[in-house]
Structure formats: structure tokens, C-alpha cells
Write a structure and sequence with these properties.
The chain is of the alpha+beta class. It has helices at 2-9, 15-21, 26-34, 39-59; strands at residues 66-72, 78-84. A hairpin with a 5-residue loop joins strand 1 and strand 2. 4% of the residues are buried.
């Protein structure tokens, strides 16, 4: 998380100063930049996109009193459970 924050500010501030301020090594930051994205990170990003899409599509038409529980099963299936409050 710190590395992503450093990357987001790297156009406005020097990386070495950001690393020092957040108490991380510059070598660690550059190693993180060159590391391929993990399978878990890719799956999390894709699941987040599906959840956001679901909320945009269903959120408009659902009764405000209903609650939505969204969970991920180990089969990598998005399960949606809707019940009234």
C-alpha cells in the first residue's frame, strides 16, 4: 500500500523523499515496481470491478430497505444474497 501511494505521488515529489517519509527502502520500492502483479491481486481487482458494476446496476432498482451481501466462494463464483432488513 505504501508503494502504491509513493507511485501515485512520484510525479510531484522525489521518490527518495517519499520513501524516506514513509520509512521504506528505495530498493524495495523499485523492486515492487518491477514485480509482476500477483494472481491474488488480479483476482481482487476483477472481483472489485464486478461488485461495483453490480451496485451500479442493481442499486438503482432495489428497494432501499433491502440489504445486499456479496461474498466470494472458493470456486471463484460471485454469490449475491439479497434479503430485507
Amino acid at each position: 500500500m505504501k508503494y502504491a501511494f509513493i507511485q501515485s505521488l512520484s510525479t510531484k515529489h522525489r521518490i527518495i523523499r517519499l520513501c524516506h517519509a514513509l520509512d521504506v527502502s528505495v530498493n524495495g520500492y523499485y523492486s515492487w515496481c518491477n514485480r509482476p502483479e500477483s494472481k491474488r491481486s488480479i483476482e481482487d481487482r476483477q472481483l472489485t470491478a464486478k461488485i461495483k458494476l453490480f451496485h451500479r446496476q442493481v442499486g438503482r432498482s432495489m428497494d432501499r430497505l433491502a440489504s445486499i451481501k456479496i461474498c466470494k466462494r472458493w470456486e471463484n463464483v460471485l454469490v449475491l444474497i439479497v434479503w430485507p432488513d
